[in-house]
Amino acid sequence: MASLCGRIVLAAAKRNVTYTPVRFCKMMNDPIEHATGIEKRELLAKQAGNPDPFDMRVFKRGPGTKDSPNLIPSAFDARLVGCVCEEDQTYVQWMWLYQGQPKRCECGHWFKLVEKAPV
Q1: Quick check: 53 pLDDT over 90?
Q2: Which of the residue ranges 4-8, 48-52, 58-62 would you say has the lowest mean pLDDT?
Q3: Cα–Cα 20 to 30 A to 20, which of 40, 59, 81, 119?
Q4: Does 25 belong to an annotated binding site?
């Protein structure tokens, strides 16, 4: 009976062991080869030297007057923009900007959406 149990366990252990060549591979392919769609365009833009293809960085406010508003690039007709009105403020004042319509924040700075080519 003991030898029969031993053979069953040994056979089950052999069945579950598999060997694949991936285990012996020392390096992965380039991520650009695996990427598709918007992810691939983002990787290609970063490779071309544009570290922020979606313009997600923080902009410093300029004068922000009605005659020369802060320009915010966007590839769409509208964009959600956050303004930290005072230096020691602990929250962000959010507002929607629409193409062609400058908008004034509660702190008095003006913002305007300008067209940017999509990624």
Answers
A1: no
A2: 4-8
A3: 40
A4: no
85 is in an annotated binding site: yes
Q: Give the whole-angstrom CA distance, residue 8 versus residue 105.
A: 75
| 5 assigned to a ligand binding site | no
Q: What kind of fold does domain 68-113 have according to CATH?
A: Cytochrome C Oxidase; Chain F (2.60.11)
- What predicted TM-score, i.e. pTM, was given to this entire model? 0.63
Q: Could you tell me the pLDDT band of residue 59, with boundaries at 50, 70 and 90?
A: confident
Sequential DSSP letters for 2-52: HHHHHHHHHHHHHHH----GGGG--SPPPHHHH--HHHHHHHHHHHTT-S-
Contact predicate 85/106, CB 8 Å: yes
Query: What single-letter amino acid sits at 67?
Result: D
Question: Which residues have CB under 8 Å from 61's CB, separation 6+?
Answer: 70, 83, 109
